[in-house]
Amino acid sequence: MERTKRLFGAFALLLVALVFALAACGGDDDDDEEGAGGEGEGYSLYMIPKNVGNPVFDLANKGMQAAAKELGDTTQFNGPAEADPQQQVQVINSAVAQGPDALIISANDPDAILPALQNAREKDVEVVTFDSDANPEGRTVFASTPEAQKVGETQIEMCGSQINYKGDIAILSATPTATNQNTWIKFMKETLEQDKYKNMKLVTTVYGNDDPTKSTEEAQGLLQAYRNLKCIIAPTTVGIAATARVVSQQNACKRVVVTGLGLPSEMRDFVKSGCVKKNALWSFEDLGYLAAYAAHAVVSGEVSGEEGESFEAGKLGAVTVDANGAVYLPELLVFTPQNIDKYKF
Ligand code: RAM
After folding, report:
1. Nearest CA to ligand 1 atom 6
2. Distance 334 CA to ligand 1 centre (A)
3. Pick the CATH number of 44-146+284-330 from 3.40.47.10, 3.40.50.2300, 3.40.830.10, 1.10.10.10
4. Alpha carbon distance 267, 274 (integer Å)
5. Which secondary-structure segment (H or E) carries 168?
6. What's this model's pTM, rounded to 2 decimal places?
């Protein structure tokens, strides 16, 4: 009897051990599926756009969410009402107070937000920028739009090729402190110095602040102030949509070329009516996706922003950090009446 009892006890112990071992295996599987640290809970990613209400950032949010789903991470999205550096600092500070693992931010001013980003990093919140970079001291990796030089050159060429490379041109930008627009404008100015473009004259640069009303007023102002204007380049989706509307309302499409960076969904009607013949952009969904993968790699410690480091960015494949701590979206898309229907974003 005693022997039977002992045997039964040993068997029961074995059974309990087996159940625990199986449960532990199950746990590992979950971790693998989610692919994230933090005991399978994933990382918390917090995206801060330049401002809310701009559809390109909603697309970036969608891309971040898709990446987060693959990685087992969680996401939040919140930004200032206006593309304003001080408002953005407030959003950064309240995001940091919630203690996310990483911020993913498009900067309204590279320097004005630097102290807030440094404070975030001191509190163990990693910082990755996307779209519009901050001062590199404030972030680990920058998930960039296609190479800035190419974005600048392409816009000058889209304008020049429609005006026989001759005449007055103007730029209608976003905010005066936007890192991305200012970098593209720098490359546009350098491109204009090439012999091919020597008969094109940049008469002014104005700022619509990525606000539809202000952009509309600035576009109207340009048409009024510069009677010989041949082309307006708007390196902002908000600016180009407002400019195209103003130029077509004033029946000036034949006289003034509108080009720059535009969302197909907002530009389709102007492109199809022939008012805007060429404009360019990239997938903002892919940009948000890339930025989320970059943030995940930084939080996990896989990437520290050093040149030559690589990480897998899901469907985008392996990407490598360059000397500026940046990774790039490769594809700059140029939309024309012939191809615009292919693009659904
Ligand atoms: C606007 C914003 C954004 C820029 C695009 C092209 O939506 O300024 O930062 O990347 O235009």
Report:
1. 236
2. 16
3. 3.40.50.2300
4. 11
5. strand 167-173
6. 0.89
